[in-house]
Design brief:
This protein is an alpha/beta fold. The chain is 39% helix and 16% strand. The protein contains 14 helices and 14 strands. The chain has an eight-stranded mixed β-sheet with strand order 3-4-2-1-5-6-7-8, with helices on both faces. A six-stranded parallel β-sheet has the order 11-10-9-12-13-14, sandwiched between helices. Helix 1 crosses helix 14, helix 7 packs parallel to helix 8 and helix 10 crosses helix 13. It starts with a strand and ends in a 12-residue tail after the last helix. The C terminus is likely disordered. Bound molecules: uridine-5'-diphosphate. Uridine-5'-diphosphate binds next to helix 1 and helix 10. Keywords: Glycosyltransferase, Transferase. This is Glycosyltransferase involved in cell wall biosynthesis. Pfam families: Glyco_transf_4, Glycos_transf_1. It comes from Streptosporangium sandarakinum.
Length: 397
Amino acid sequence: MRIALVSEHANPLAAVGGVDAGGQNVHVAALAAALAERGHEVTVHTRRTAPDQPEHVSAGPGLTVEHVPAGPAEDLPKDELLPYMPAFGAHLARRWAERPPDVVHAHFWMSGLAALAAARDLGVPVVQTFHALGVVKRRWQGPADTSPPGRVAAETDIARRAHAIVATCRDEVSELLRMGVGHERIAVVPCGVDLELFRPDGPVAPRGPAPRVLCVGRMVPRKGLDTVVRALCRLPDAELLIVGGTPRDDEAVRLAGLATACGLTGRVHLLGSVGRAEVPALMRSADALVTVPWYEPFGMVPVEAMACGVPVVASSVGGHLDTVAGCGVLVPPRDPRALSRALLDVLGRPELRASLAEAGRRRAVTRYGWPRVAARTESVYLDVLAGRGARVAVAGG
Ligand code: UDP
C-alpha cells in the first residue's frame, strides 16, 4: 500500500524530550519504519520548522519524510498551529492529487483536520489516531489548557468523519464512546516499543549505592514530577534522576525549588533531555521507573522500562491500566504518600522487583513490539479499504 502518515507537529526526525516533542514523535517514526519494513511505501507529512529543511528526506527504504510549508518555518508551540492547517491541508491536496495514497493515517487532531480536507475530493480513506483528547486535557488542566477553544468540537467532528479511529488503550475507547463515536469504527492498537533498543542486557549508566528512582518524559506539570519529588522526602536514602526538558523550563525551575525546599539537595538530579539511544542505559541503572502523570493517553515510557526489565510504578490512569496493570504497581495520581509507600515496598523487596521485572519484560515482548503493532495497524487499513469498518479489537491491547 501507499500510506500517508500526517503528523503536523511531531516530526519523526526531531529530537524528543522538549515540551511538544515526545511520544508522538517516537510513535510516528517507529510506526512508519515498521510499516515500510512490511513492504509498504510510507510518506510522513510534517510541518516545516526550519528554512533549511529539505522538502523530502529519505529515512530508509520505502520511507520518506516530507516537510510541508505551512506557516513560518520555525518551531512554534503545537497549540499555535491551527491557523496554518488550511495551508497544510491545501499542500496535501495538491500532493495527493498528483499521486494519491491508498490510505491516510492522521496523528493528533489538527492533522486530522488537514488530512480530511485534503482527502475529501479524492475519496481516500482517513484513519485517525488522536494521541490525546481535548476533553481529557480540559478535564485535568482546566484553565491551564492552552488548546484552541474549538478543539473538543473539532475532535468530535473528526471522529464522526474519519473512516476509522485507532485508540491506543481501552480508557480512550470509553472516552470516544462518551463523545458519541460508534464502537464499530474504533480499533484498539497500542503504541509499541523498540525491543532491539529496550532490552535487559546492554550498557548500564554509572551509579552509586543509593537506591535509584528514574523518571523520563517531557517537562510539563501534568507528568506529576512534583509528586515524585514529594514522595522522595519519605524515602530515606533514594536518589531521583529526572530525564527530559531543559533546566531552563518553568517546570524544571519549579522542581529544583521544590527539591531544595524539601531538603533534597543532592538527591534530585535534573539531567535534561537525552537522546533515545541513551535512555535504555539509564533505565537499566534504575531500581524503579516512576511515571505518575495526572492523565496519560498511552505512556510509552513505562513500556520501555518494562522491556528493559525494570520495575514500574505508575499512576492508575489511561494507558497504564492496560500496560502496567498486573505487572507493575499502580498508585493514584497526585498522591505522594501512596507513591512513597509503593516505592518503599518495591525498593525494599528484591524478590518483588525481580518478579515485576520478569512480568513486565514478558508483557512488553508479547504485546508491544513494533512489528506486531504495525501488523495490527495494517489490518485496520485493510478493513477500512474493504469497507468493513475498524472492527473493535481490544484483546491484548
Ligand atoms: N524521551 C527521550 N528522551 C528524553 C525524554 C523522553 O528519548 O529526554 C522519549 C521516551 O523514551 C519516550 C518518549 O520520549 O519514548 C515519551 O513518550 P511518552 O508516551 O511516555 O510521553 P509523551 O511525550 O507522549 O507524553
